[in-house]
Amino acid sequence: MSDNTAGPTAESITPSAPEEFGLVQVWWGDGKGKTTAALGMATRAVGHGYRVHLLQFMKGGTGTVEDVRGEYNAIAALPGFSYENAGHYGWHGFMDGSDDGEHEARAQGALARAREILDASGEADLSEPLDPEGPPEDGVNMLVVDEILYAANRGLVDPADVVSLVEAKPDDVELVLTGGHERPEYVFERADLVTEVGKVKHPLEAGHPARKGTEY
């Protein structure tokens, strides 16, 4: 009789230092799954004991999406994974009553915050395991800057500032940039991985709203 339990098994998470981190990833396109892919990869990194931080630019909640997202609850349960949301309530440019000036101010603040975390990581000893309970100001191995490319598309941050952020990245930090339906050509030359997530079909086109557990 075959052993149905054969295969990889889960082990306890022990803080560790990655040996091969340091690339720049870009996930963009008009299809669903950019943030989802980045979060899946971040979870994999956390499972190996690496320190990961998620910084979201434009997901401050809307009238049709609850303020508490499922990923936040999951992240809070994982050692070494932290998050913060700098998004303004509403969605920029959608005539939802939100203040465009506040959207820009929040995006600029998030850009400065991303730079702060990268600078702090450059001062940390990333060859040694980082404290999974330590703040991101103590350094991270992977920084996911979610929706920053949307913010650049919409003029909330300057694409040149996104390039500067990439150029400021410490050698051993994995930097993941997501968002945007427009090709972020300005960052392609500096990226090591570029993935376009293309839409073939989406339930929103059939009138299905964002669903708890899949979109938030």
TrEMBL record:
<dbReference type="GO" id="GO:0005524">
    <property type="term" value="F:ATP binding"/>
</dbReference>
<dbReference type="GO" id="GO:0008817">
    <property type="term" value="F:corrinoid adenosyltransferase activity"/>
</dbReference>
<dbReference type="Pfam" id="PF02572">
    <property type="entry name" value="CobA_CobO_BtuR"/>
</dbReference>
<dbReference type="InterPro" id="IPR027417">
    <property type="entry name" value="P-loop_NTPase"/>
</dbReference>
<keyword id="KW-0808">Transferase</keyword>
<protein>
    <submittedName>
        <fullName>Cob(I)alamin adenosyltransferase</fullName>
    </submittedName>
</protein>
<dbReference type="GO" id="GO:0009236">
    <property type="term" value="P:cobalamin biosynthetic process"/>
</dbReference>
<dbReference type="InterPro" id="IPR003724">
    <property type="entry name" value="CblAdoTrfase_CobA"/>
</dbReference>
